[in-house]
Each structure stands twice: as structure tokens, then as C-alpha cells.
Amino acid sequence: MSTMIELTVGLVASMINVAVCILQLTLPFTLAFVLVGVLDDSNSAITWSIMGGYLHGSSWPTILRTDIVATLNVNKKVIVLSTLSTISLILLIGVSIIAPIGLYSALSIGPSILVDFQYAPDTSPMSLGTPSRDNYNASRLCGFLSPQNCPGQAHGWTFWNNDTMGLGKNLTEDAYVSSVVPQNITDIFCSGSVGNRSYVAGALDIQYRSYIVAAENVTEGYPTIDDGRKRTQSAFIIYQSLILNDAFDVVEGLIVNSKTGGVGFRNHTLPTDPAKGCSGRRVCSGLSLSQSANLTVGYIIPNQGTIDVEDMFLTDRGGFVNLTHDWPFVDFNDSQARPELYARAYRGAILNNFNLMKYFNETRNKTSLGKTYNQFDTGAYVWLQPNQIKIESFPKGPYIPGIGGLLPSHANSSIYSNTSILTRGFGGGDDANITNIAVETGVVMGVASRPDGGSRLDPGTKWNAPIYSCATAMKAYIMDVSFLYNGTKGLASLEVTKAEPRTYTTNATIPLWAVEDTGMPISDVSPFWGLVDDKFEHTPHMWTLRREHLYLPAGSAFLGSVFRKDDSSPAAAPGTVLSMLYQDAASDSALSPKTLVNYGGGTNYPLFLKWKRMPQNSTAPQTMLNLIWTDIMANYVMGARSTTGGAVDNATSATTRVRVHKFRDTIKYDIRYAIPAIVFSIFYIIALSIALVFLLLGKARFQQLRMLLNRTSVGRAVSVERYEGVSDVATSSTKKWIVDYGDEDIGIRKSTLQRDQTPQENMESGTPAASKPLMQQGSEEESERLSDVDETHESARDGAGDADAETI
């Protein structure tokens, strides 16, 4: 299997440098051969100087081991410096090859600039079935026993409550109940999404993902709804489960936190000119859950068939024997400041354990740690399996997850505490206000385990499962979202890197929240809530609160079902989903076609494994309840406000300018590849420093260097030797020497041996090799010509002495 090498900027640069180094080394080799081939035996002195400089400047002396690389009888200082020069040259070649490899191309974040943003459609399964927002309008219905007008509406129909039942009266023949949200309420709850918060979704910017437009069928004895006109009504469809993603999912109208739970409402926009992409921060409104029984349930898998009640047993792990004598106090007076979720869950565990002790006719002095109970009333039934988690809200009376029918119809239920109301802190008849926050309480039966440590679901094996008492509330807040966008695949390329509630440094920046004061009981209305402008802080019929977050108020939707199709009021959605979380998400109803997802894991093994991999303590049910609520909410609602300030269909062509950091291509460097360069630089700095010291101390001057270079050139050296005693030959400048002596012919033979003789044969012939001509192929006529040239120079220069024309 072949492996392709990924080319980087540094690697390509290194390859180019290798090629350049090869050319730098081989080109002088080649040209040296060419030069030797074309050069005559006799040339001017300056020609031989240039020729010598070229040849000695190449690597041939090192390869052929000629005189200039010899070490015998050489000054040791010269040897040391020559060796260091060679080593530095090799190191420099290595630096030129290795150093570029550290270069690489990367995207970096540029300065903050304003760019155009435009609505970006989602192409995920979540969006494929999401209908257009063109026909969507907010509507709200009130009333539990009978339809009635919500606050701000009166169309000939009145309804009031007395001590026995609600009574209604048609005042006019054309009386009807209106679902239209009054303009004054719309103005108030849209005011929090203007100015510098225009991108934050308000209460009326939250819409149901699925909806229908239909007229209400008229029921005899009740008024018509909207006088028979069609209106938007909520619906519920599972589009896509995101609970296993463990990520920040960006879908149509939402940012979904499937890591820890929570949703952010936003109609997404992207840059119109993405280029290399960008990064930035967005702000949106968010919702999440806030959360806080020492009993275990045991059962035996039967050899065949389903689990019978006889196979079920309850084990006291301290829930009975250590049951407190004190009444578990919960302060419901200021739930926005102190929601008391742990206290509510603790009260639920105490009251449920107390109800179970009554059910088993047990007392503290009779029970003990590890005692089991399996005497259930006739009619009790079991729906349990080891890979099925149970989530149920507290009923009135004793309750064990997985066992139904504990109380037969003839049982005296008055002896049991109403755990549900006593932990929620409200009932349907209590006022809908900012203090009665929507809190659901119940039990979670966690992941079962075998006492013997096994994991297979073998028939006849025993299993134990812990029971947790939970209390859950919902809070709204402004959320800061950091994102990256690479500009390649639209919304699918938008990555949320962080999403967290906003923190505030001063009280002046803390947002103002409001809850509608309807004057109606919880069972009849789901009050509006959300951000409002500061000018509405003291508006009548509004409760306002300046705080980082708002715990959502309880309303009629909280007491109903998520499949209720009565209106499209966004205030209702979180409560109905919370109700569904404890009633339907992990019970028998979760197997129905309505939900498609079994959040208890009974028919969804990957989801069961997610439960199992959670820490087996109280944090596991908290996290999983958050994630389940988030998953249902993602399929149930969406945000309709974007950076452009419009809804989904109204913002498709609109643009707005948003400040972001655009990505740009930059070159970066891996410092590890600079180590050879650093070593070479150290050597270079040392050499440079020594040279400067010598220069400053006068031990080395440019004049001396020039003189040595001139005297060691081959042409000058021959001239000095030939005209010994003539002082200006050695000391004259290059220009003067060229004029006076540089044109003198010097013959240098290009061969040391005859082609068919060895050095030994030359010695035997009586001619020492050192005195032999360098080019044996030269003719006697050439020697005579050179002698004539020497004689000419001898006569031309006064006092030059005898100039031998011997070939060198």
C-alpha cells in the first residue's frame, strides 16, 4: 500500500534548496572540466590567477586531495581554521536543507472588521421537514375547564371560578374566545430585543418547529375560537435526535448543546463573502435545566417470559432505617433567588420513602440495612429490564420506578403524602406568578448492575438499580457564543467552539426580565416571560426582575402534554417539554410512535451505553435529564431572530454588518527545525566577533588581506619568483600589476605523466619526476617559442636579471 507524502511549504522549499545545493556543487565541477579542456598551456599571468582562484574555489581540491588541502608541514593554526571552515560549510548546507522544513502555511485570525452577514439555510435532517414561517403567527389560549379569553382580550365571553366549578356566560350572540396576542403585550415582550440586543430572541421569537394552520371545531355549549378563523397551532414531530452527538450542534433556528444540555435560540446568518472563513462571537437567548433516596430496586431475570412481580424486590440501603425524624423544610418564598432544588429533591426522597414504609407497614425499629421487601398488592405489575432506565414524576402516594398499580382503587390513599405538590411547591389552583417557578420533581432509576459483577443479561441473574430523587427547573439567560467558520459548506461549516451564559461586571449591564401578571391560576394560563426594555420596569401587570437569569414560571402547559395542539404561544413550550421529560421520555409511552426515541435506552442501546458511561452517582441523572430535555426541545421549537433582525423567511435576502475576525493565510515556523541554523549562527557570531577584535586591535587589516590574496595568486607568485629583486612586482596594486606583468605568458602543462609511463619508469629513465615538464605532450618548438618570449621580456625590463623560459 503506497503512502503519499503531504507537501508543505517548508518541504517544497527544502526540496528546492537541495536542488540548488546540488547545482551549486556540480556546476563548478562541470565548468572546471570545461575550463581545463578549453584552456591553452600558455596564458597570461592574470589568466592563471583567475583560473587558479576558480579551481581552488571549487570542491575539486578536497575531492582530489591536492596541495591546498594538505596537512603535512602546515601551520596548525591554518589547519584548525581550514577544518572549521569545512565543517561550517557542511553545516551551512545542512541548514539550507533542514531549516525550510519548519515553514508551514496556516490560517491566522486577522484584525476585527465589519462584514456583511446573510441568512444561512440549514440542510440537515432537522431542517428538511421544518415548514416555512410565512403563515406562522403567535397565538395563545387560556382556560382549563373551559376556554376563556387571555389577558387583554374580551369578546363577549366571560368566565369565573367559584368554590365548586368554573362558570361561563355568553353575553352576546357573536361572543368568541380570541387567541390573538394583544399588541401591548407584544410591544413589551419584544422590547428586550432592540438596540444592542437586537440579535437576542425574545419570547415571541421562539416558535414551534412544526405547526398546523386550522380552525377549531365548535363544541356545543362553548364559544368559538377566533370566530371560526384559522390560526397557528403547535405540533410535534421528531426530526433528528442529537443526544449522542456530544457537541454544539447548529441547526435551523437553534444552537443545541448536546454536551451538557441547553438550547440557544437563533436564526443563523453567515458572511456573504466567506473567503478563508472567520471567527467571532454571537449573542443569543438560551434555556437550560437546573438540577440537584438511598434505596435500590432489585429483580431477577426469569428463565422465560417477562419479569413477574415476585421477581421484584426493594432493598433498604439506608432510606428506611436512616429516615430523618425532622420535616424537610423548603423555602418557596423567593424561588427566583433560591430555587431550593436540592431541598425539593431531598423532600421528595424523604416523603417517597415515608410513603413506601407505610405501604410495607414498616417502622424504623423493624427495618435494617440490606432488608428486602417484595410483598406487593394484588394488581401490581412490572415493566423492567436491565438496560432500561426509568424516569417518572412523583405521584400522590408510594412509588417505585418500574412497578405500576401499587395502590389498588380501594386503597386508602389519604394516609399518603402528596409528594408531587409538596415538592413542586404549587398546584394548578395557585397563582401564575414570578415566584411559582416551573419545577418538576420525580425519581430516576439508574443503570442496573449485577451483584456478582457480571454484565450479560443471562436468565436467572439478579440485578440491582439505584433510585435517585430529582428536582428540575428551567432558566433563561443571555448566552455568549464563540464560533469558527471555514467558508466551505454553508451552515455545516459553522462550528461553535464555546457557548456559555454571559457574565456581567456591573449592575447597569444586568438585563431586566419580566413575567406577565395575568391574575389567573396556573392551570388556566401560561404567562409570557422574557427580556424587556428598562422603561417597562414598573409597568402594571408585570413582575420584573433584574438578574443574570430568569427561572421560568409555572403555567398550564406545564400541567399538560407536549402533544397539546391548542395554540402557538412560545411561553408554553419549555414547560410542556419538562412535563414530558418526567412523564413520557423514559416510560412505556416512550415506545409509542409519537416520540420515536426511547430515552431510557430500552430500545436504543447506544443511548443506554451513554447512561452507563456516566459517573454512577447523582450527577448522572442530572446530566442525562438535561440532555433529554434539550433533545426534545430541539425537535419542538426554534428561534426566529437572526443578526438581520428578521424571521427565517423574511431574512433570506437581508444583510447586516457584523464585526468578526477574518482568517488569512500566514506562514509559521516550527522552531525545532531551526536548531542547525542556531548552531551555525553561534559559530558565525563567534567567528565574526574574533574577526572584529583582530580588526580593532590592528592584527588584521584589509591592506594585509589584499596583499596576501595578491601574493598567493598563481600569476603574481610566478612574477615575483621570475623577477626576484624587483620590489614593485609584489607590492604593486592589482591594476598596475596587470599592466606591467599581467600579460606575461606563463606556460603550465595540463598533465604530469606520459600516457604510457608510470612514475617509476620516469625515475628509471633518469629524469626526476619533479623536473619533468607538466605536459609531456608539448613540442620542442613550443619550448623554443616560450624561450623567445622570455628573452623578449628580459630585454624589455631593465635590471630584471636572467629570465628563464623553462616551462613551469
Feature tags:
about 800 residues; three-stranded antiparallel beta sheet; alpha+beta; disordered C terminus; 15-stranded antiparallel beta sheet; single chain; 18 helices
Average pLDDT: 79
The class by helix and strand makeup works out as: alpha+beta
Count of discrete alpha- or pi-helical segments spanning 4 or more residues: 18
Coarse shape: elongated
| Uncertain regions spanning at least 5 consecutive residues | 589-593, 646-651, 753-808
Give the percentage of residues in beta strands. Answer: 15-25%
Largest sheet: 15 strands, antiparallel
Helix content: 25-40%
Number of strands: 30
The end-to-end distance, rounded to whole angstroms, is 64 Å
Radius of gyration: 47 Å
Structure, explained:
This protein is of the alpha+beta class. Among the domains are: 1-108 and 669-700, no CATH class; 749-808, no CATH class. The protein is built from 18 helices and 30 strands. It has a 15-stranded antiparallel β-sheet that branches. A hairpin with an 8-residue loop joins strand 22 and strand 23. Helix 2 (45-57) crosses helix 14. The longest helix has 30 residues, at 9-38. It starts with 8 loop residues before the first helix and ends in a 12-residue tail after the last helix. The model is unreliable at 589-593, 646-651 and 753-808 (pLDDT under 50). Keywords: Membrane, Transmembrane, Transmembrane helix. Residues 754-765 have a biased composition (Polar residues). Residues 749-808 are annotated as: Disordered. The chain crosses the membrane at residues 12-39, 78-104, 673-697. Residues 784-800 have a biased composition (Basic and acidic residues).
